[in-house]
Amino acid sequence: MQPTRRQMLSAATCGFGSIALSDLLCRAGDLAGGSAAGPANGNAMPGPLAPKTPHHMPKADHFIFLHMRGGPSAMETFERKPELDKQANRNASTSANDAKPAKGKKPRRQLTPSHWKWKQRGESGLWVSDLLKHTAEVADELCVLSGMHTDIGNHTPAMLQLHTGSFTFTRPSLGSWLLYGLGTENQNLPGFVSISPPVINGGAKNYGTAFLPAVFQGTAIGDIKTPVKNASVGNLSNPLLNRRQQSRQIELLQSMNRDLAEQMNPADTSQVDAVIDSYELGFRMQSELPSVMNLADESQATLDLYGIGNGKPSDNFGRQCLLARRMVEAGVRHIELCDEFWDQHNNLVSGHNARAAATDQPIAGLIKDLRQRGLLERTLVLWGGEFGRTPDTAKENLDGRDHNPNGYTMWMAGGGVRGGFQYGSTDELGYKAVEGRVHLHDLHATVLHLMGLDHKQLTFNYAGRDFRLTDVHGNVVNEVIA
């Protein structure tokens, strides 16, 4: 029986694409009068997601962000602190630094040594602790940034700044800026995917578009509370219509949308354009995304490389990492993965051990797999959290560390960065970045540069002002570029 016109339109507003179409309509309706998105160099393109010419020759074509939500400890992972070990158990004063104890309390503090042993790894001799034994195997691929710092030490605003460059205003995410500036290679898949994103600490704002057109928003696959093997893309299938009927429905809806656009001022059609583009992408995704997400054709050796199967603690993040590799192969521009919970104010040893058991082998497997397939050279991988952890803790809780935005570590690999290289450092105890200081704005500028974009030229005019990811800040960290 043929569906009624009301059923067809109801199905459309329920959605069948990467984002519920009713949500897209709401988002499109929220777009203000900024100019329609264009390519980075201003050349006309057939659609907003079509590949665009970068500002300069890129080092990388794809970007994977391994987000360790909560803040891994640098002195337990990649920044060895012999002086901290020497001064362990001595009283520490928070008055000499800006690192703040949990929840603003100011109890007596005590310096705490690293809880794991250290070794120099690979031909480069990069220091990596025994906590990350698998990642240590790919040390010669890592460009460790030990002078990272950010502006705030609370999770939600720090995560927003990590993803959007701002913790005070709603701004487009890094992934949306990349998609806006570069487009994507595969028009049948979303160009920006967020796998298992957090539902708190900013939620969808971390992969949202803000004032950029809705078509550049990230596509969420599941959420942090849902195992990846059970996750799916919302509204990807249409239970009311078959493929032929959906095609006819799209033709009807798009003709109505284009009629509406023709009646509008050309400067005001970005809302309708975003809906048109999103409808068409959602329809195309039905044929290709399920096959990309299906791991059944992967060999047992590959599954073992990522630590997938047999109830292993690495199974869930291993699936995320393997999906990221498959999406890179399929032409997705930016993929973000997320793991929690690295926020150990207490029980740090058991907590960091648990997180390492969940992520260490999959991350090393991803680097090895990208390398052996010839993909690492053109894929930039970034690892890290929204801030780091203090070298001291409250005396009543010696198995923990608190938030530290003033000095922490992230690393990059592939995509044109120097491997087996450590840039920057914190002071001898680990309170503050003192050498090779890299602010988040600098990191964002560097990521854009490696992807072929000039962060000062990648702008969008909104409310009478040209906005950019780095606002009025940011410098490319040339020292880390190969």
From TrEMBL:
Residues 79-117 are annotated as: Disordered. Residues 79-88 have a biased composition (Basic and acidic residues). It comes from the Bacteria. InterPro entries: Alkaline_phosphatase_core_sf (IPR017850), DUF1501 (IPR010869). Coiled coil: none annotated. This is Sulfatase. The lineage of its organism: Bacteria, Pseudomonadati, Planctomycetota, Planctomycetia, Planctomycetales.
